[in-house]
Design brief:
By secondary structure, the protein is mostly helical. It has 15 helices and 9 strands. A 3-stranded antiparallel beta sheet has the order 1-9-6. Strands 2-5 form a two-stranded antiparallel sheet. Strand 7 and strand 8 form a beta hairpin. Helix 9 runs parallel beside helix 15. The termini are far apart.
Length: 365
């Protein structure tokens, strides 16, 4: 819990402006070489996966890459593979001796986590050789905590903890953001009226920016942009079924939950509950403003979880998504094509993702 609080405060406040500028640069520079304006569809999930992995490597770990331009393909493949573990394999892990069976299956399939562990170890080794100087990103924060000691003389963060946290941030920062971005563009391509309205809001905010505020500051005040993202996350929550372990015996409404019990929160079901949402399968950003917004129960909409252990990178992820969407919508129009799946086939892995990608056509504005 202490680590969660320290990282949340430092990562999303001390370095926020620098990180958002990196997002801005990555989107502007790299999108020019990705979109070819022909009658062929573009897989937006593929592009956003590359973009968000490149962003998290740069902002959190100080590693500059050109993943969008074809470099570091193996890192992208291993990161994707970890989220494509079949549901049945993950369910086996919950059975008695399940973890041992789970590890055996992964060893036979090739465990992508081992490769990512080696990547994290190499990054940390390289940073130590360079010394803890320069910009204070996430890795700097954790390595500084490693150098500090508690009153008992124990390091606040061991090397193993740093590596584990680095992998979690690397994966979470890349996968959930890329899924949300691709799902959002999918719904915008199918709902041109919403896309036009959102583009008009972005254009107005940019053109009236006489104080030359950075885009991430402007995006914080774009109400409709916030509504569009939330509605996309309602329909396709990035973390559809987070789990927690009950730390002590607890009784809730006549139900006894023993200590050690795994509790899975069905966020997808909460977001599609017809008793809570009118016409729940409809894409309607207006749910999240005005009287409709005030009627939403605080625990009915949980795209990032809730409580003291909610998503540690929530603020960063939201701003990354907003900056990326604002940038691409100012330059491009996204339309459905014959290759666009309707309805979209969803893969329920560790996160929800588009099973066959998100294929749309891109038009220059």
């Amino acid at each position: 819990m202490v680590l969660h609080k320290r990282v949340t405060h430092t990562y999303v406040t001390c370095t926020f402006a620098n990180e958002m500028e990196i997002v801005n640069i990555v989107v502007i520079q790299k999108s020019k070489g990705v979109f070819c304006f022909t009658d062929q569809s573009v897989n937006m999930l593929d592009w956003f996966s590359k973009m968000t992995l490149e962003v998290i490597l740069s902002t959190a770990f100080g590693v500059d890459t050109s993943i969008q331009l074809g470099e570091n393909k193996i890192l992208l493949e291993k990161a994707k593979a970890l989220f494509q573990i079949p549901t049945i394999v993950r369910l086996i892990g919950r059975l008695p001796l399940g973890r041992s069976i789970f590890r055996l299956i992964l060893s036979q399939r090739g465990n992508p986590a081992e490769y990512l562990k080696e990547v994290a170890e190499d990054i940390i080794k390289s940073r130590r050789q360079q010394g803890l100087t320069g910009r204070k990103d996430l890795l700097h924060l954790m390595m500084t905590a490693n150098e500090e000691t508690t009153v008992e003389g124990v390091s606040k963060l061991s090397d193993e903890e740093i590596i584990a946290q680095a992998i979690v941030f690397l994966l979470a920062g890349y996968e959930t953001s890329s899924n949300t971005l691709s799902f959002t563009l999918y719904y915008l391509a199918l709902n041109q009226d919403v896309q036009d309205k959102l583009r008009a809001e972005i254009k107005e905010a940019v053109e009236s920016n006489f104080k030359r505020k950075p885009l991430y500051e402007l995006a914080q005040n774009m109400e409709y942009l916030d509504c569009v993202i939330k509605e996309s996350q309602r329909l396709c929550p990035p973390g559809a079924f987070p789990n927690r372990v009950c730390s002590e015996d607890y009784d809730l409404n006549g139900i006894h939950i023993p200590a050690g019990t795994e509790v899975v929160i069905p966020i997808y079901a909460l977001h599609h509950d017809p008793d809570a949402w009118k016409d729940p399968e409809k894409f309607d950003p207006e749910r999240f403003r005005g009287p409709a917004k005030d009627a939403i129960h605080p625990f009915q909409f949980l795209p990032f979880g809730a409580g003291p252990r909610n998503c540690i990178g929530m603020r960063f992820a939201l701003m990354e998504i907003k900056v990326a969407l604002a940038r691409v919508l100012m330059k491009f129009k996204f339309v459905a094509s014959p290759e666009t799946q309707v309805p979209l086939k969803i893969h329920a892995g560790i996160t929800l993702s588009a099973k066959d990608g998100v294929l749309v056509r891109v038009q220059s504005i």
